[in-house]
Specification:
Layout: H1 3-10, H2 18-32, H3 38-53, H4 60-75, E1 79-83, H5 85-90, H6 92-101, E2 106-108, H7 117-127, E3 133-134, E4 142-143, E5 153-154, E6 162-166, H8 172-178, E7 182-186, H9 193-197, E8 200-202, H10 206-220, H11 225-233, H12 237-258
Parallel strand pairs: 1-2, 1-6, 2-3, 6-7, 7-8
Antiparallel strand pairs: 4-5
Bound molecules: ligand PTJ.
Amino acid sequence: MTSNEDQDHMVPKSHPRYESIKYRHKIIDGMKNLVVAEAGLIAHGRGECFDYILGEKTTETAKKAIEAAVASILLADRPIISVNGNVAALVPDELVILSNILNTPLEINLFYHKKGRINAIKKVLQKAGASVIYGTDPKKMIDLNGLDSNRKKVEFIANADLVMVPLEDGDRTEALKKLNKKVIAVDLNPLSRTAIWADITIVDNIVRTIPEMIKAAQKLKKLDKTKLEMIVNNFNNKLNIQNTLNLILEYIEKQKENAFAAVKF
Ligand code: PTJ
């Protein structure tokens, strides 16, 4: 029995926060298997906190960003999806489906270097069906200019024109932008450095974003280049983030009353 199954047995499906607990245990198991960095647990907790004040749903602003992101990937010449430990632990199967539909490869790129981590993540992606995975052979890696962290070690990313960076730590997006690459971020924190620097910021939980992107890709793949360009040109990231912040304020305002509705004192 894996520890995940162990934990599943402990958490009844009827628990009001079953879904959230299920993903926590994927992260915990990922950490035990070297997939997730220790700090990945803390990052996940920060994400949960923002998800709570977004109402734990994919908002209208996130859907707009998702559409613009998928259209941009379809228009790009050399797009790539960067994969870190948390993403590999949470949505490996969905990530591989998206990569196939969009014909966009995956590259493992980690902030925290630890012996065995790249291999552990590679195995998870292979089990999910990925055939081409960049970022696994140190001999093929070069250093990206303008970055000091371990994230500077890149392969396909070096010559990509678009990089999707789910759950980033803030130092890379700026460096990628300075190298004239288009950046798509997925980050539950709308005010993170990554969120602010990216061209398209999807403020949503990665566990909902990737399935939404798959749906959007199936739809947008049928459109011609001009229509895709219209979607991208009509998207304004700054405005979309500001609207997301308004949604958070509205949600909190509503919760002042709603949160207590079912409670009898
Ligand atoms: O696997 P590694 O070594 O590459 O490390 C990955 C982590 C995530 C540990 C590393 O990139 C890191 O420390 O990131 P930060 O600085 O904690 O930033 C992660 C961001 O992702 C935060 O703004 C979180 O709010 C956000 N986040 C966390 N969980 C989710 C999320 N965003 C979307 N979906 C989530 N499930």
